[in-house]
Automatic annotation (TrEMBL):
Membrane topology field: Multi-pass membrane protein
Name of this protein: Inositol phosphorylceramide synthase
Region ranges (Disordered): 254-295
Compartment(s) of residence: Membrane
Naturally occurring in which organism (per UniProt): Streptomyces xanthochromogenes
One Pfam family this sequence matches: PAP2_3
Length: 295
């Protein structure tokens, strides 16, 4: 028999340590790449050279459009600085509350992909287009329109908190990767035309925004999609492994006996307290055949 749904529902106090694990890995990666600006710039220029060889150049026209059109650039900066941190947790909580059966697989996919992205940030620090020398033709729209929002000149962090971010976390783009995850969840489990439209529009919007604001290259976005694909492939075996470990080291429960308090006891008509039955089904009388009414 399958366990009831409420018995398999994950608990928030078991989910918080996983969030702490992700943040700890991000913090460690930020500390490792600190001061490695020269290598990050070289990686960024390598991406530009590769895109030029492939005849790709989506970043420059989008960045010029956002720079010269405040009606597009300012909303794009707000989207970049906020939706990444709002929509993804909102979809995760929605899955936790409304789709508990599918939640573990969805969370496992998101976490596996995020850890893969953090590995990329750590071992392949990449300078985003906005931090390249001006000769390469990019404008930091976050700095240009900083007076309209809460962010400063250091990515999307609030003013004075730029040191809490990894400025070289460009490859892969988890903005795009997380947006793709949200789109898949909304498409599969939303169940309405509006959620289907949002499932397509949100990842596409984030892809244009991260390039137009000069925070990511086109290949960063492609790498973000690839990381999500790899995370999907790895998440299922990792979840099975985690379940086996949890089952092996979980405290042994008393499964040999019945969970019913009155196991082995039956109550006859008119009885308030069950009498113990023998294996043959007859009552074991304690008083040499005393009638049941005397009890």
């Amino acid at each position: 028999m399958q366990p009831p749904q409420h018995a398999t529902r994950p608990r928030w106090w078991t989910e918080l340590p996983l969030i702490a694990l992700i943040y700890g890995a991000y913090t460690l990666g930020r500390l490792i790449v600190r001061g490695d600006e020269a290598r990050a710039v070289e990686h960024g220029l390598s991406i530009l050279r590769l895109e030029k060889a492939l005849h790709l150049n989506a970043e420059h026209p989008l960045n010029r459009l956002f720079t010269h059109t405040p009606a597009l650039g300012i909303p794009a900066d707000f989207i970049y600085a906020s939706l990444h941190y709002v929509i993804t947790p909102a979809v995760l909580i929605w899955m936790f509350r409304r789709r508990p059966t599918q939640y573990r697989a969805a969370r496992g996919w998101l976490m596996t992909s995020t850890l893969l992205g953090l590995i990329g940030f750590t071992f392949l620090p990449t300078c985003p287009p906005r931090l390249l020398p001006a000769v390469h033709g990019f404008t930091d729209t976050m700095a240009q329109y900083s007076s309209h929002g809460w962010w400063g000149g250091e990515a999307s962090a609030p003013r004075g908190l730029g040191g809490m971010t990894n400025q070289f976390a460009a490859m892969p783009s988890l903005h795009v990767g997380w947006a793709l995850w949200c789109g898949v969840m909304l498409w599969r489990f939303g169940g309405s035309r509006i959620t289907r439209i949002a499932a397509v529009a949100y990842p596409l919007t984030i892809t244009f925004v991260v390039m137009g604001t000069a925070n990511h290259y086109l290949l960063d976005a492609v790498a973000g999609v690839a990381v999500m694909g790899l995370g999907l492939l790895l998440s299922r075996p990792l979840l099975r492994l985690a379940e086996r470990v949890r089952t092996r080291f979980a405290p042994a429960s008393s499964t040999t006996g019945s969970s019913i308090v009155s196991a082995g006891c039956e109550t006859s008509a008119g009885e308030r307290i069950p009498g113990q039955r023998t294996s043959s089904g007859t009552r074991a009388e304690a008083d040499d055949g005393a009638p049941s009414t005397a009890r």
